[in-house]
Known about the structure:
Protein-Tyrosine Phosphatase, Chain A, 2 domains, alpha/beta, 16 helices, UDP-N-acetylmuramoyl-L-alanine:D-glutamate ligase, 17 strands
Amino acid sequence: MELYERLYRLHRFGIRPGLERITALLDAVGQPQRDFACVHVTGTNGKGSVCALIASMLRAQGYRVGLYTSPHLLRFAERIRIDGVPVAEELVLELLPEVLERGEALGATFFEVTTALAFQVFSALRVQIAVVEVGMGGRYDATNVVEPLVAVITGIDADHREYLGRTLHEIAWQKVGIVKPGVVLVLGERRPWLRRTLLQWAQELGARAVRPPQRGVRLRAEYADLTQCVRLPDGSEVRLPLAGEHQRRNLALALAVMEELQPHFPTDWAQRRRGIEAVRRWGGLRARIELLRATPPVVVDVAHNAAGIAALCRTLQRHGYGQTRWTVVFGVMADKDVTQMLALLQPITAELFACAPTTERALPTPALASVARRLGMSVREFADVPTAVQAALERGGPLLVVGSFYLLAEALPLLEPECVGSLP
């Protein structure tokens, strides 16, 4: 479709941090970001899950909720959800022409135009509160034009160093940039020295910082279907359809946000539990250590940095897959620490199917395979993602598809027809 082609051509501008273009663009379309309350979420890993949990619990209570996340996996509309449902194509086609035309005139990037479109959608559909995920960093991210009730920093690791800085201190400074005077900051960073730095900066900015209770979400049981039963702070239990200790921390963060929203958007525990149970459906969460097939197991995950891979490996161990050796279909962006990622995957890998997603940012397959061989891994190289996935399915046995969002976007349409109806 011509409109989408024009929008995607804006990728040629790449990533251009700064608020000048998005501010001018939003001024030109009437400042829609002022028409709704907001929760603003940044962090290196976990921000998509935290956003989805918050939005799902608010929706369960009956509020009209917008959710803006990126990137999408299968359809552009996944980025902009209203009450758990991707935005209707008709509304995108109605609103996009003006936003796109003005964005093109300003030299705006793809993400800037998409962000302005999301805010236009939320305004047009009269959402009461939007949950907005930062695209990259925070301080100079296009989303940092909102005035949130609550800001969230999930945690900080090395990522996008060419834009955010070489050290964790520099990256933290970028992320704390979403904090504004009078805002509540819910802080998920666990390292004491970095947490102290963030707290100091938040106080200097006139914000009140809070941490979730350390034992607010307690594990009761973990299951082979990659779900878990947890006890909530009110003493009740719920089936969390997301696996891993990191998801319990994400849930604790989301619940801390719900407490801070109580004066403005009160929720009761029954509806919070309902929202937690529905988070994959209403929050649009896909490929977060997701089991597509039970026998033999097929797992997909968008772990795209070393911290994400480490969490994946721990989670598979905890959920009963400690002795499983996987055929691993793997592809990442060139700016990632691929050596560390592969070193973490090596103990659970029977054979690595190396491939490159269809994007100029991807690490070429020969370079990926070379690193894996230096680590002593058994490797097969494939020209593209679909070929690698098809070969892995034909091989049979446990299959793990992990890496970039771009990788999963190409893999899921092939995996799902093979796996449909296979879960109990």
